[in-house]
Structures are given as structure tokens and as C-alpha cells.
Amino acid sequence: MTDDHGRRMTERMTNSERDQSFPDSEPRDAATIMLIDRAGPKAKVLLGRRHAGHKFMPGKFVFPGGRIETLDRTMSAVSELHPDTEAKLLERVAEPSPAVARGFALAAVRELAEETGLMLGALGAAAPATPGEIWDDFAKAKVHPDLARVHFIARAITPQGRPKRFDTRFFTADAAGIAHKIEGVIGPDSELVELVWMPIDEAASVDMPTITSVILEELAARVAAGMAHALPVPMYYQQDGRFFRDLL
Q1: CA distance 54 to 191
Q2: pLDDT along the chain (248 residues), means of 10
Q3: Are the C-beta atoms of residues 191 and 116 closer than 8 Å to each other?
Q4: Which of 198, 231, 166 is nearest to 49 (CA)?
Q5: How far apart (Å, rounded) are the C-alpha atoms in residues 152 and 171?
């Protein structure tokens, strides 16, 4: 990936209009997952449209995701993160540990199930051990998270002065890894009111936050580069009114 790509991405982020007049707050750790379907001639990505009644990004198309929960670190898995992925997840983290890294990835898997009903993982003969809450649905379906199949694509920190701030890790996984679906999760009264599969190179045409369109380009570049875990991971953050893109 060239320096021109990085400059173009940071300029787009810097020039995007945003209200930064809100009281400042510390960003909360969050995780998002981009499911990709590469079965057809064009790779497609899964997007969800947020409910129009939400105060935060109403009606926007986004990737499923949300905050990290303490229970995520202790959920069992049939495989663990690739060493390169784990190492990149722990860069610029206050208290790095393998549990912290797996917590980021497992949060993305959990949020996907909560918001879309789609469970990523491997079906087993027995139920996985779970720490409770939504993870109990994985036990009922006998779905074991498969962390080795999860790729770390990007990281972005919401600028100061925004109504909500997150330090978000963006992951991807192949749709072939969907092991089970909980019915009835998507609907007119849900957080996501619809799901759409769109070609990655066309997805930015729908109404989405700037950061979502930027990460879509990073995903497309990663797919084109072969999806190796060792590839560098871009990290976006704002400083003195400008966005920067460092590589982890």
C-alpha cells in the first residue's frame, strides 16, 4: 500500500465535517467485524442499516459492532488468534496481555451475533464453555468461536469533542465461517433494521459515516493483498485537528 493511499485516506478524514463541540471524554474500547463473501465473482461485505430513531448515527449503514465487555476475554474458542494478529492488537495498549487481545476479537464475534443473529465459528459435538449472557446462545447452538479465522484490518480512535468516543478495532472474517443463525434479530424495532450484502467496491455508495467508507477501502486493499495476518494494520487518530495513519 503506497504513501499516496495513506495521504488520501487521512485527507478524507481530516476534511470530513463533524461537530466537535461536545464535552470531551475518554474513548471506550470497541470492536467491529466486516463479514466478506468471496464465493461470487466480486467480494461482498455485510452492512447493517441503523434504526432511524437512534440518536447516534440514525439511518446510517455500518458494520456490526460495539463495546468490549469483560466477559469476552474468558469465552472459550476452538482456536486462538494468529500470533501476528495478537501482536498487532497489543500495540499501543496500556496493559497488554493475550486475554486483552482475544477479548477484542471475541467482542466482535459477540456483537455480530447480538446485532445480526449470525454466529461465527465451528459447530462442535458438545457445547462450548461460556461466561454467560449472549455467549449462552453459542452453547445452545454448539458453536465454538474460531479466532484463527479472524483478521485484524484497522484501528480508529474517535476524535475529541464527539458525543461518543471509541477506540475501535476492525476485524474481518469470511462468511463461510457462519455456523448458525438466530432468527428474528433483524426487524423494524431492532438496532439494525436491515442487512445488505454489497460488493466492496460499491458499498461506499450508500449513506455511511466517513470512517466506515475509509475502512471499506482498507478492507478492499487487504483482500487484494492476499489477507495475510502479517500485513500491516493502519491506525487512524486525530491530533491538532488533523488525522494521522500509522501502521501497526
Answers
A1: 8
A2: 80 86 92 93 90 67 92 96 97 96 97 95 95 93 96 96 93 96 86 89 85 92 93 95 94
A3: no
A4: 198
A5: 5
User: What's the grid cell of residue 113?
Assistant: 451475533
Give the contacts of 109 (CB within 8 A, at least 6 positions apart): 33, 119, 120, 121, 145, 150
Q: Which residue has the cell 474481518?
A: 172
Structural domain of residue 177, as residue ranges? 3-247
Number of structural domains the chain divides into: 1
CATH of residue 29's domain is 3.90.79.10
What are the Cα distances from residue 130, in Å, to 133, 135, 138, 142, 144?
8, 6, 8, 11, 10
Question: What is the distance between the alpha carbons of residues 177 and 109, in angstroms, rounded to a whole number?
Answer: 11
The Cα 28–Cα 37 span in angstroms is 30
Can you tell me the distance from the alpha carbon of 7 to that of 13, in angstroms, rounded to the nearest whole number? 10
Whole-prediction pTM value?
A: 0.93
Instruction: State how far the Cα of 171 lies from the Cα of 145, in Å rounded to an integer.
Output: 14
Q: What are the helix (H) ranges across the chain?
A: 3-15, 83-89, 98-116, 135-141, 210-225
